[in-house]
């Protein structure tokens, strides 16, 4: 039976390039001179550092601009952590880059596939991905279109499109 996998995986090379470009711009900008404004990266965790809330928003805007130029979807960033005092006058905000589908999103994807009963597809959660299988290849392509239009909160990717 034909199948494909629904995954949530950022392009880490482009992410690293966007962060490097943002760090370079922050280092060169006049309004950030003499301040601790910076972006620190550890794997899929980004830490924004600035003096004030306004400056923290400026650092975030620079990062988002560079991500957009490099083609990295901003929906990969999890901004649920609020800014925290770091020491002295500095503020820190930690942004995590989403990788892998969490349980809630997997259930939502599974429900969307099951709700399209005319397509006769099944979806199975397998760790951090969802495998969709069906009898016809055309139905799988319609399922991809359905998921692209219905799931807005995450930039889904579709891999391993197979005919068995």
Which structural category fits the helices and strands? alpha+beta
Shape: elongated
- Poorly predicted ranges: none
| Rg measurement, Å | 20 Å
What's the N-to-C terminus distance?
Answer: 5 Å
Task: Present the secondary structure layout.
Elements: E1 3-7, H1 12-28, E2 38-42, E3 45-50, H2 53-69, E4 77-78, E5 84-87, E6 90-97, H3 103-115, E7 121-126, E8 129-134, H4 137-150, E9 157-162
Antiparallel strand pairs: 1-8, 1-9, 2-3, 3-6, 4-6, 5-6, 7-8
Helix pairs in contact: 1-2
How would you describe this protein?
This protein is of the alpha+beta class. It is built from four helices and nine strands; from the N terminus they run E-H-E-E-H-E-E-E-H-E-E-H-E. The chain has helices at 12-28, 53-69, 103-115, 137-150; strands at residues 3-7, 38-42, 45-50, 77-78, 84-87, 90-97, 121-126, 129-134, 157-162. A hairpin with a 2-residue loop joins strand 2 and strand 3. The longest helix is centred in the first third of the chain and has 17 residues, at 12-28. The chain starts with a strand and ends with a strand. The mean pLDDT is 92.
